[in-house]
Each structure stands twice: as structure tokens, then as C-alpha cells.
Amino acid sequence: MVDKDQTTKARRYQVFLSYASADEEVARRIADQLRIQGVRVWFDQYELRFGDSIASAIEHAISASDYLVILLSPHSVNSRWVRTELNATLAQELTTRDITLLPVLIADCEIPSLLASRRYLDLRYNLEQGVRQLVKQIGLVPNIDFSQLDAKSFEQLIVDLLRALGFTEMQREWRIADRSVDIKTLYSRTDPFGVKVTETWLVEVRFYRKSRADLKSIHQLTSYLSTLPEQFKGLLVTNGQITSTARQWLESLQGRSRIEIRVLDGTDLKRLLLQHEDLVHKYFTRSAEKQDD
Prior knowledge:
2 domains, Trna Endonuclease, Chain: A, domain 1, 12 helices
């Protein structure tokens, strides 16, 4: 049974359902189930009228939606139309428009590389149960409100999230010479040849009430990394988004420097937190319940 509070929250938001035409029957069943659960769904079988421009209608629907649900199957992953929608959505995530991408597996297929790091829902064996879980996720996202936190609790959230992602040996306020970073941590992985590799990550956490992470934040981390061995990698985490100028500069840096810096902005942070429901409840749900009281 779906939690009534989560279902109520899900009703406030619009879902755009992306699918390949060959999967139309399954897509219609999912759209019907979502609507039964009270979710607003943009599904072209219902929304398009005779004479409408399909391209412009879908572009408008995506930009007006809060969630984009991608139905993954052999048909969709090889569909140029679905890939176009997917790329458009990822571009939107890099702007001020906050669209949450939720992949849904409906048939055995190779997960596209753009979605490889994202947790997907599996509807291959039990569609109704999977849709209930999808409704739960849609209802959970609105709880992730960074304005409920302060700088200290936001940094602790990042520490807990990094631990959940497999980072170890975390040191806070790590200092070398006259410089310091918020977190120094290790991450171990296996390379393509089966050799275990341990990477050192330096993490800067930026919590903003109004402003956005700009070039100064990235320059500071870049300058620090340039003095350290190559195995040191950088991560900038912010509750908001970085400026377009900063993002463009970072993209150009990756092509002309050995330095590797990842940026985890508010949109990507929400996506990761969806995979760790316990952290959402720990840092957000209780605060939201207090505000409701």
C-alpha cells in the first residue's frame, strides 16, 4: 500500500513519460496506474490533439514537468527519439530548471551510459508494485529541501552520503602546508584489469542561501590540486547550482589538464539521495513534519 502522505505530495507534480513507440502498450498501462495513484502524467496518447506539433508539444511538456520517467527497453535505448528527449533533459538539469530523471526498466536491455550511475526501478516482473514504488519516489523528492539545513548539517549530510557511496577514511578540515579542504577521503575501485585502485579525493562543500557556486570556488580547488600528486581528485559539492561561466571553464579544464574535478550540484545531489532513503528521512523528513505541525 502506498503511503497517503507520499501520494498526496506526488499529486502536486507533473511527470513526463518517455517511451519508444513499440512499448506503447506498457507505457499506457504505467500511465494509467500512475493516474490511479493520483499522479499527474503527460502521456501523448492522452495529451496530443489533431493538428498539434508533436515536437513542440513534447518540448513544452518536458520543460513544464518536474519528473521525466524514461522507460528502458531494447526499443527505447536504440530509439533516436528517446535519446533526443534524454539529452534534452540532461541539458535542462544543468540550468536553473530542476527536473528529476527517473529511469524505469521494463525489459532486459543495456542501460545507456548516461544513466549508468543512476538507480533505476525494475518493472519487468511486477508492474503494479513497481509503479507504487515509483509513486513513493515521486512523493519523496519534495522532502529534499536544502533550505531546512544549515552549513554544518549540510556538510554532515555530505559526509554520510560519501560513506554510503563507499568512501572511507574521512578526515575533516584536512590541512597540508598553509591550505585546507573540508574533507579528505579515499575511494577504492577495481580497474578493467582486475587490479584494486585506491583514489584520494579532496572534497569542498559549499552551502548557499542565495548565491551560486562560482569560478572562485573551483579555482581554489584547482590551485590546490595542481600542487598534489596525480591520484588526488577533486569534488565540489553544493546545494545549489554552479554558474554557467564556472561550468564552461570546468569543461575546458578537463580537456587541457591532468586535474580531475567533479561537481555535485543540487540536482545531482537530490538524485543520489533518492538512492539512500534513510538519509532523506534523517535530514529532511523529520524537519518537514515539524513544519507541517
